[in-house]
Amino acid sequence: xxxxxxxxxxxxxxxxxxxxxxxxxxxxxxxxxxxxxxxxxxxxxxxxxxxxxxxxxxxxxxxxxxxxxxxxxxxxxxxxxxxxxxxxxxxxxxxxxxxxxxxxxxxxxxxxxxxxxxxxxxxxxxxxxxxxxxxxxxxxxxxxxxxxxxxxxxxxxxxxxxxxxxxxxxxxxxxxxxxxxxxxxxxxxxxxxxxxxxxxxxxxxxxxxxxxxxxxxxxxxxxxxxxxxxxxxxxxxxxxxxxxxxxxxxx
Length: 251
What we know:
Blueprint: E1 6-9, E2 13-18, H1 29-35, E3 39-44, H2 61-74, E4 80-85, H3 87-99, E5 103-109, H4 124-134, H5 136-145, H6 157-165, H7 169-180, E6 194-200, H8 208-217, E7 221-226, H9 233-236, H10 238-250
Parallel strand pairs: 2-3, 2-4, 4-5, 5-6, 6-7
Antiparallel strand pairs: 1-3
C-alpha cells in the first residue's frame, strides 16, 4: 500500500494542518508560506485525497484520527500544534481526545462536534446521492461555491477545484459515510487542550449553534468569528487568519 503523503517544510516547533472534505494539502499554500519561517509545517493529504489519492480511503473519523497519529509517530513527531479545517476539524477533535498530551495547542476551524448536523446546506445522504448521479466534478464545484462569499470569482476557488479533482467518488462517499456516522458531542469534555475555535459568520456548512456547542463543552477554549467570510476563511482573509492563528500559537 502506498504511504500517506505528508508535506513537511520549515523549521521549529511542528504545526500540523489537516484539510477538509474534497481538500488537499495544497489548499494550505498561503499558510505554509507564512508559518514555515517559524514552524515546521506538516500537511498530510488524507487517504483518497490530494497526493494520497492512491491510498485506500477511510469511512470513519476515528480511523482517520488513528492513521494521522500513527503517521506522526512514524515521523517521530511527538509534540505538536494541531489545526483541523471542516472534516479535518472533526479528525483533530478525535486526535485530541485520544492523545491530547501530544498536542500543545488545538485549533478547531470551520468545524463542528458532529457530522450529520441540522442546518447544513444539504443532508449528507443528499450529498452522497448527488455524487453518484451528477458526478464528482459537478458536485465538487457546487460544494466549493458554498465555501466562499464570492463563490466562483473568489481568488482561490479554482485551486480548491483542482484539489477536489484528485479524489474519487469512492473516497468522497467514504468520507461522507465517516461524517454521517460520527458524533463527538458527548466526549467534547475530554478535550483538555487550550483550544481556539475559528468560524466565518457566513459559513453554510456549520452554523453558529454547532460552534456554540464546541465553545460550551471544550472548557479551555476561545472563539474568534470572522465577519463576511464563509467556510474557507484561510483563503478569503488570508492575512487576518494567519495573524490570528500565529497570535494564538505564540500566546
